[in-house]
Amino acid sequence: MKNQAFAHRNLPRLLLQARESVMAHTRPGLRGHGLSDQQWRVLRVLGEAHASGHAGVETGFIAREAFIIGPSLSGMLSRMERDGLIERERDASDQRRTVVRATAKGLESVGTLSHTIEAHYRWMERRLGKDKLQQLYALLDEVIALDAEA
Asked: Which pTM was predicted?
């Protein structure tokens, strides 16, 4: 059987490698706050919701925005609630849904970590240049939008 050479670079691997490169600068701060990558993604979603005036966020929205499957999210939210980072309650209009919000402690973590993360993004902007970083964001948005077209 003839070995088929690939015509394109391994894009999923490159995206994962780029993610790890970015996260290498973020993880120490997260660990310093006792947070995993996934917990940070949840807190960031909740922090952004809080900043835009939403009192709480439905768990399905968190799962989609943080890219965490339901069963994993459920256990993680239990641990985050135990640690005082979030609060959960049943949606008053639909008891089947659970609404989650960051506590003062969770929002404090978001505020503190956002400074560190934004500093890293400013460093990236200085290294790559503002135009290149904006191009990267735009290209990633286009790649993500391809999924909606399929």
From this structure: 0.87
